[in-house]
Amino acid sequence: MKILEKTVLSDFQGVRVVKMKVFAPNIAPKALAGQFIVLMVTKDGERIPLTIVDKGKDNITLIFQEAGLTTKLLGKLNVGESLFALVGPLGHATEIKKYGKVILVGGGVGIAEIYPVAKALKEAGNFVVTILGARTKSLLILEKELKSVSDEVYIVTDDGSYERKGFTTDVLKDLLDKNKYDLVYSVGPIPMMKRVAFVTKDFNVKTLVSLNALMVDATGMCGCCRVTVNGETKFSCIDGPEFEANSVDWDELTKRNRIYDSQEKHICNLNKTLE
Amino acid sequence: MPKDPVKVKELPAQERNSNFNEVVAGYTEEEALIEASRCLQCRDPKCISGCPVGINIKKFIQQVTLKDYSGAYFTIREKNNFPCICGRVCPAEYQCRKACVLTKKDFPFASKESINIHFLERFVGDFGMNNKLAISPSTDNKLSRFKVAVVGSGPAGLCCAGELARLGIKVKIFEALHNSGGVLRYGIPPFRMPREILDFEIDYLKKLGVELEPNFIVGKAKTLDELFKEGFAAIFLGLGAGVPSFLGIQGENLCNVYSANEFLTRVNLMNAYKFPSSHTPVNVGKHILVIGGGNTAMDAARSALRMQRINGIAPDTTIIYRRTEVEMPARRLEIEHAKEEGVKFRMLVSPKSFFGTDSGFVNKLTALECKLAEPDASGRRKPVIIEGSDFQLDCDLAIIAIGLKANQVLTSATSNLKTDKYGDVVVDPLTMETSIKGVFAGGDIVGGEGTVIEAMGMSKKAAQAIIEYLKTK
């Protein structure tokens, strides 16, 4: 659970995206693309899920944006310090096989989460196209890494500060208009994943999203992460985290992810010194 | 003839319902002596057969009357590794006390005249704890070369570990959460099960040489096969009944509709009642409804009421149950405590739909009135909905406490482990051995939800079978 390496990938107006390599000999040998871990920074801390971005023999790589108190505390840890708790690998792994031509759409810190899947799909012999979206150039992460595992890479920024100005879904639609693809895989902010689902619906292409529902134990015990998929209640932690994009009740997920917004604001205000 | 039963001292309701301090104070020595002296010392004691682990109740009570408290402690420990825990959470009124001859015939649970066996057990257990009484392990050289893996650190796992470690077997417990105790920690609130008691009992196991590995999910981090390859000679599965059931009604995924597991885990395991110094939040409503009639519903309602007071909200927590109080599976003591603390009860009500605000938070429950049908073959009276009896209840937070299903994280990853249609692990009832040789199971993952002591009963049986199994190796 010791932090082995730490890199700040981006720092925009005080919002940092941090990459950490963590000693995890029980998790690394089993971790597969699409799976996640749950960690606690301190003994009083929250349990939060994070995707396993990469792994070594005895370590895993995590990438996170300092958004709430827990991720800010995590970002404060330095090499040599330890997490209080780390458990995994959790959730189902992505089904990796030769689909043919696949598109991966990553938005914001979600780019980190499509990386292991892109890499595995490439190794499985797929033609991998990646679309990366960021608010602005300095927030774009893992460009080099994704380029190394993709056959084509498209980059968009909301403000046009780098490459094409616009949204990932603009590119997605262009690609689907021109060619047939066998799989679309997307991770990012809920509004983006929802738009991806909206776009691909007309093209009859299998579309998977990895959901970022709130979790506590993440082993199916609490039901905090329940989502409605195809009209049925599913637990993101044990049934997911991946689901068919067009079956997800996005409005419900959006609302459920805001359950503790006021507490988050309160606790962040109390801990202003961390900023 | 026996004196009146000695009532146990409790924190007054108004003092206890804004904190999580233990409610029941337990007997003093004087009280224990009086209560023990009421025991008739029957020639053919029924109470013992009412105990899932067969504690020699008659003997330990007699030892109490002789003030031989350490003797009493060791009498209990012969059969039960955790008297401090069981003395606090056992539903004695359905077990030993119901079997006590002082219980009136045909009573659905123990009548109040029966001996307060659980309070005496707790008195003796606490005496042992406070006086650091410990069983000296009787190391069996033939067995001490073996390592056994225990999966899950709840009542079943802890009990099995204790039984094996006493004989010098090296036991390692794997626990998925960051803290041990299973339902004793995440489910049962500190006002019923103080954390220092739980820690003491777990530390005791550590002193017996039991190793604990938290944050480890068997089935994910390692398979059962891999554990065998690492040199574990046998494996015990005490996985618990992990997955909360929901009602399956409209609006159940609205914000602030919690499973009891989630609400209690946030409060008990993650200490949300200490937010913000503890970082995990939990919401607290003005009108809280708890659906269910078991111990978990009582725990959830009493915790919710405390959260309301801690947050300066006028307490308004109501338990909704489809049957009547007599059919409630909860311990009678919990029902009484809940009432004393101000939890309201609304019986013969069946929830229909939740409704919410535009931002997705629950604000209303519609429900139907019920009546009870005549007893069926099993003697249980089914609730029957009265058509057209729809009504509404204000509800800005709901807690669903209607039971649990098997957690399948491990079982689904272990293809040769046989499960039944409920997902529970199938075992040989005599040995608790599963379909995989050398793998045993007990507790809620076998046969569904039960009590702490029932889990321990199964674990003891499994531990015995594991010992026999190791002897053949």
Structural description of this entry:
The complex is a heterodimer of chains A (275) and B (473). Chain A has 275 residues and is an alpha/beta fold. Chain A has helices at 69-76, 110-123, 143-148, 168-178, 190-201, 236-239, 250-256, 261-270, and strands at residues 3-12, 15-23, 36-40, 48-51, 54-55, 59-65, 85-90, 101-107, 127-134, 152-157, 164-165, 183-187, 207-210, 226-229, 232-235, 242-244. Chain A folds into 2 domains: 3-90, Translation factors (Elongation Factor Tu (Ef-tu), domain 3); 101-257, 3-Layer(aba) Sandwich (Rossmann fold), CATH 3.40.50.80. Chain A contains 8 helices and 16 strands. In chain A, the strands form 4 sheets. Chain A has a 7-stranded mixed sheet with strand order 11-10-9-8-12-13-16, with helices on both faces. A 4-stranded antiparallel sheet of chain A has the order 1-2-6-5. In chain A, helix 4 packs parallel to helix 5. In chain B, the strands form 4 sheets. Chain B has a 5-stranded parallel sheet with strand order 3-2-1-4-16. The termini of chain B are far apart. The model of chain B has no long low-confidence stretch (mean pLDDT 92). At the A-B interface, strand 7, strand 14, helix 7 and helix 8 of A face strand 5 and helix 12 of B.
Mean pLDDT of chain A: 94
Class from helix and strand fractions of chain A: alpha/beta
**Separate helix tally of chain B:** 15
Biggest sheet, spatial arrangement of strands of chain A: 11-10-9-8-12-13-16
C-alpha-based Rg of chain B, rounded: 23 Å
Helicity level of chain A, as a percent range? 25-40%
Order of helices and strands of chain A: EEEEEEHEEHEHEEHEHEEEHEHH
Q: Radius of gyration of chain A, Cα only, in angstroms? A: 18 Å
For this structure, the CATH topology of the largest domain in chain A is Rossmann fold
Question: Which strand-content bin applies to the residues of chain B?
Answer: 15-25%
Helix share bin of chain B: 25-40%
Percentage of residues in strands of chain A: 25-35%
* Helix/strand class of chain B: alpha/beta
Strand order of the largest sheet of chain B: 3-2-1-4-16
What is the correct CATH architecture of the largest domain in chain A?
3-Layer(aba) Sandwich
Q: Ends of chain B: how far apart?
A: 56 Å
For the largest interface in this structure, which chains are involved and how many residues does each contribute?
Answer: A-B, 44 and 42 residues
Describe the main β-sheet of chain B briefly.
5 strands, parallel
Average predicted confidence as pLDDT of chain B: 92
